Amino acid sequence: RRAMAPTRLDKLVALLANGPSEASRLAAARQLGDLQRSHPRELHTLLQHILRHLFSSEWATRRAAAAALEAVADAVDQWSPH
After folding, report:
1. CA distances from 60 to 10, 15, 21, 22, 25 (A)
2. Contact at 8 Å (CB) between 68 and 16?
3. d(CA 46, CA 36)
4. Helix (H/G/I), strand (E/B), else coil: 55
5. Which residues contact 15 (CB under 8 A, 6 or more apart)?
6. How far, in Å, CA of 56 to CA of 45, rounded?
7. Which pTM value belongs to this model?
């Protein structure tokens, strides 16, 4: 049985955590925002993948996770109770 190939989300989250440079980590963060725009019903899944990196011991990972949260928040439609 073959293992499943990593998804785009998996790859972007891996770059967020282990990207070779700040630029690559921030690019991954922006792309996670784009992913939210493309798949608005997957917000909770996306947040679960990002949030765990806010508690990383690596400053660069925490910073990239915060940038990803900002990109995702910008991509979420504004909620209106009416």
Report:
1. 18, 11, 9, 7, 8
2. yes
3. 8
4. helix
5. 24, 25, 27, 28
6. 19
7. 0.86
